[in-house]
Recover the amino acids of this structure.
């Protein structure tokens, strides 16, 4: 999985006043959980753009001024409801020997016979939650629709991998090919025409 480096400064004071001062200076207060104790730090808001405003999944290397480097993943993010600026971010520290749960984006591949016949693809789950060791986290999950006829569904069991396990029930639908209105109308008109032709015989 691709990694993004974020340079930050460790926070000594975590009170409301210092948090407000950070935000006024264009910085985001953050916390890293999963270590011996929570680590508080801050970084420029612009540093998070490639991490937050993207459909892709990334791990993060947090580099602090004292030379400390922490591998982590984004766990939670809070936005200002009015300005949409980032208020706070929680990270979770990665350990090579400990499994972690993360949401991974779904990418569609292949040509569906159902779509070529006039069906419409509906991506039910744009992201899927997986659990694995950090080294086995995928950049994305491939949903191959090559065998989907009109009306068919692709389930998580059909995109499974030995590298990770899904945190979803087996009957979770990843995507489906729905009958389009045009195809439905054409089928209805064909049925009517066949019925009329049968009556006329």
């Amino acid at each position: 999985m691709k990694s993004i480096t974020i340079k930050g400064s460790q926070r000594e004071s975590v009170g409301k006043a210092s948090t407000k001062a950070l935000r006024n200076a264009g910085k985001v207060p953050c916390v890293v959980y999963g270590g011996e104790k929570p680590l508080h730090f801050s970084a420029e808001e612009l540093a998070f753009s490639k991490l937050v405003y993207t459909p892709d999944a990334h791990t993060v290397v947090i580099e602090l001024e004292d030379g400390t480097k922490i591998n982590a993943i984004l766990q939670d993010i809070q936005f200002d409801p009015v300005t949409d600026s980032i208020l706070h971010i929680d990270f979770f520290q990665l350990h090579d020997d400990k499994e972690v749960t993360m949401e991974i984006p779904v990418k569609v591949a292949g040509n569906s016979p159902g779509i070529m016949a006039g069906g419409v693809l509906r991506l039910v789950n744009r992201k899927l939650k997986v659990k694995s060791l950090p080294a086995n986290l995928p950049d994305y999950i491939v949903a191959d629709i090559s065998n989907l006829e009109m009306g068919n569904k692709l389930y998580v069991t059909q995109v499974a991998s030995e590298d990770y396990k899904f945190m979803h029930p087996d009957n979770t639908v990843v995507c489906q090919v729905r009958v389009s209105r045009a195809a439905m109308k054409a089928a209805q008109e064909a049925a009517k025409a066949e019925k009329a032709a049968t009556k006329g015989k």
User: Anything to note?
Assistant: The chain has two domains: 3-94, 101-185. The chain is about 20% helix and 40% strand. Residues 101-185 form a domain with the RNA Polymerase Alpha Subunit; Chain A, domain 2 fold (CATH 2.170.120.20). The longest strand covers residues 69-79.
